[in-house]
Amino acid sequence: MLETRETRELVGARPEADAPRAEPPRHWPLLLIGAAVVPGTAVVLLGRWGDAPAVQAWRTVCLAVTVQALPFLLLGTALSGAINAFVPERVFTRVLPRRPALAVPVAGVAGVVLPGCECASVPVASSLIGRGVAPAAAFAFLLSAPAINPVVLTATAIAFPGDPAMVLARLLASLATAVVMGWLWLRFGRAEWLRPAVRHTGHRHGGSRLDEFRLAFQHDFLHAGGYLVLGAMAAATFNVVVPRSVLDTFAGAPWLAVLFLAALAVLLAVCSEADAFLAASLTGFPPVARLAFMVVGPMVDLKLIALQAGTFGRAFAVRFSAATVVVAIASASLIGGVLL
Amino acid sequence: MKRILQAGLLVLCGLGLLHVSLFTDLCLRYVKEGMRPLLIASGAVLLLLGLAGAVIDRGRRDHGHGEHGSEGHGHGEEGSGDDGHGTEGTGGHGHDHSAVPRVAWLLLLPALSLLCYAPPALGAYTAARQPPKPVAARSDFDPLPRTSPLPMTLSDFTSRVQQDRAQSLKGRVIRMTGIVTPRGKGAGGGWDLTRIIINCCAADAQSVKVRVYGGPALPADTWVAVTGAWHPGGKLGTRTAPVALDARTVTKVHRPTNGYQDALPLG
Fold it and tell me: Where is this region: Disordered (chain A) (predicted)?
C-alpha cells in the first residue's frame, strides 16, 4: 500500500519536477552536432564554389564587418544594460529639459560622449526610451552619437589634412540632421510605429541589480548581434557585387554625385570611424558629395537599418531611415554649400 | 531560445573572437592591428558572460524547485519579450521561451567561421576590381639613400614617379613587395604588384598598384618581392609617367603580418 502510493507520487511528480531539468541534456547534443555538422556540410555542399574568389571575398568582407562591429556592439549593449539596471529614472528627467522640443538639441549634443561606431548607439537609445526619455530626444542621440564623437572627428581631421572646414561641416551637418529628425519625430512620429519596449523594466524592487544587468546585456547582445550579421551580409553583397570603378561615372554631375555617394554610404555600411578615409579617397567627387557620404553613412546604412528593425520594429526602421536620408542630404548640401 | 542555448551561443562567439585574436593572428585578415586588444577583451567578456549564464541559470533552476512563487517571478523578468509573443503574462508559467528571437542564431555563422573556416585575406580579386588608390599630392621629396636595391613602398614609388620633379628614381634599382594581381586581357595582360590597404576593416579596402613588365607569370595572390627599375615612358616626375617597373628578379616571399599596410619590404 505504502509502496504503491510512493510509486504513484514518484510517477506523478516526475514530469513536472524533472522536465525543466531534462532540457539542457536534450538540447546540448543538438547544438554540438550542429556545430560539428554545419561547417562540414557547408564545405562539402559548397565544394569548389565556396573557394571561388568572389565568394571568399564576400565571406571575408562579411566577417570583417561583423568582427569590427562586435566590440562596439558589446560596449553599446553593456552600456544599455547598465542604464537599465543601475541608472534611476529621475537622473534623466533632471538632466534633460522638461519640454521635449528643448530636450532634442540637448540629447543631440550629448552624442559627443559615446565614443565608437554606430552599432553602439542603437541599444543605448533603446534603453534610454525604456528609462522614460522622450523618444524624439533618444533618436537625436541615436543619430548624432556615431557622427560627432571625438574619435570620429579626429579621424576626419586626419583623413582631410589641412581642411578643417570639412571637420566643422561634418559636425554641423550631422548635428543639424539629428536635431531636425528629433523635431520631425515630435511633430509627425506615432508611438504605434515603435515596437513596445516591454523588456526594459528598469530595476525591480527585490531583484539583484547585477543579475538584471547580466540578463539585459545578454539579451541585447544576442538580439542585436543577429541583426548585425544580417546587415553585414547585405553590405558584403554590395561591396563585392558593385565594383568600385563604377564610381567614376557619376563623379561629373554635382547633384547626381551627392545622391550617388549618399546611396553608396547606405549600401557599403562602412564604420563611421573609417568612412572619412574612404571619402577622402573619392577624389573625383565634389566636396559636398563627400560630405553627404560622411553625414549619411553613420546614420543610415544596411546594418543599421537591420539593427533598428530588430530593436524598434520594422515599421519604424523603414520610415525613420527614409526620412533621415532625405534630411541628411538636404543638411549636407546646405551646410556643405556654405562652408566648403 | 532556451537559456542554455543562449549561453552556448555566447561562449561560441567568445571562443571565436579569442581564437582569431589571442591564439592566432587570423583577425589581421579582417581588421587593423589596433583592434586586436578590443577583440581579445570582447572575446573574454562574451566567454565569461556565457559561462556565468550557464552556471547561474542552472543553479537557479535547481534551487527554484519547490518555491514556485519566486520561480515564476524570476522568469517574469526575462520572459516578457519584445518579439511579439512575449507578454508580461508568459512569465507566469515558469518556462523560458526567451525573448531572444531566432535571428540571434545568425551569430552562429561568424562564430563557427572564425573557429574553423576562416576566409583568407582580401587579395587579387578585390584589387583587380578597384581603381588604384590616389596618392596624396607632395612637393618635397627627401633624397633617396644610396643602398641598392632600394626598399620602397608602393605609394612612395607612385608619388615619386608622378610628382618628383628632381627625378630621384632615375637609374635606381627598387625593391618592393606585394601580391600578384593579373591584369585582364583588355588591360594589356601581364600583372600588377599590389598592396591592399585598410583603414578600419576589410570592407573599406583600397589598393595601390604598380604595373610590372617582365618576370615570370605567377598565379594570383602570390606574395612576391620584385626588384627592378622604373619602366620608362612619358616624362618622369609628371602625370605622364607610367607607374610601372621593369622587373629584374621576382622572388616569392611569405605574407607579412602587416599584410594590409603599404609597408617597406624587410631585408
Answer: 1-23
Cβ-based neighbour number of residue A289 at 10 Å = 28
Residue pair A263/A297 in contact (Cβ under 8 Å)? The answer is: no
Torsion of the alpha carbons at B157, B163, B166 and B170, rounded to the nearest 10: 40
Q: Could you say which DSSP state residue A209 is in? A: H
Confirm or reject contact between A237 and chain B (CB < 8 A).
no
All residue ranges of chain A with pLDDT < 70 are 1-29, 35-36, 38-51, 115-117, 196-207, 243-248, 251-252
**Side-chain half-sphere of A60: how many Cα atoms within 13 Å?**
28
ipTM of the complex in this document: 0.81
Task: Report CA-CA distances (Å) from A322 to A135, A175, A265, A301, B250.
Answer: 18, 18, 13, 11, 52
Residues A214, B53: C-beta atoms closer than 8 Å: yes
- Give the angle subtended at the CA of A174 by the CAs of A338 and A145, to the nearest 5°: 160
Cell output for B32: 587593423
- Report the alpha-carbon angle B57-B58-B64, nearest 5: 85
| A270 close contact with B: CB closer than 8 A | yes
Do A75 and A119 meet the contact criterion of CB atoms below 8 Å apart?
A: no
Residues of chain B contacting residue A31, judged by C-beta atoms under 8 Å apart:
5, 8
Q: Using an 8 Å Cβ cutoff, are A329 and A262 in contact?
A: yes
Burial annotation B5-23 (CB, 10 A radius, 16+ → b, else e) = bbbbbbbbbbbbbbbbbee
For the structural domain made of B125-252, what CATH number should be given? 2.40.50
Give me the residues of A, 158-177, that contact B with CB < 8 A: none
* Cβ-defined contact of A195 to B35 (cutoff 8 Å): no
Q: Does A196 touch chain B (CB under 8 A)?
A: yes
- Chain B residue with CA closest to A161: the answer is B136
Greater confidence, A228 or B251? B251
What does the pLDDT look like over B179-234, one tens digit per residue?
999 987 777 778 999 999 887 788 888 889 999 998 888 898 999 999 999 999 88
A43 touches chain B (CB under 8 A): yes
Dihedral sign computed on CA atoms, order A282, A285, A288, A292: negative
Cβ A264 vs Cβ A293: under 8 Å: yes
Any idea which residue has 566590440 for its cell? A71
SS (H, E, C) chain B: CCHHHHHHHHHHHHHHHHHHHHHCCHHHHCECHHHHHHHHHHHHHHHHHHHHHHHHHHHHHHHCCCCHHHHHHHHHHHHCCCCCCCCHHHHHHCCCCCCCCHHHHHHHHHHHHHHHCCCCCCCHHHHHCCCCCCCCCCCCCCCCCCCCCEECCHHHHHHHHHHCCCCCCCCCCEEEEEEEEECCHHHCCCEEEEEEECCCEHHHCEEEEEEEECCCCCCCCCEEEEEEEECCCCCCCCCCCCCEEEEEEEEECCCCCCCCCCCCCCC
Break chain A into its structural domains and give their ranges: 14-48, 54-339
Q: How many Å apart are CA A12 and CA A10, to the nearest integer?
A: 5
Q: Hey, what amino acid is at B135? A: V
User: Which of A18, A38, A56, A68 should be substituted to probe chain B, the one whose Cβ sees the most B Cβ atoms within 10 Å?
Assistant: A68
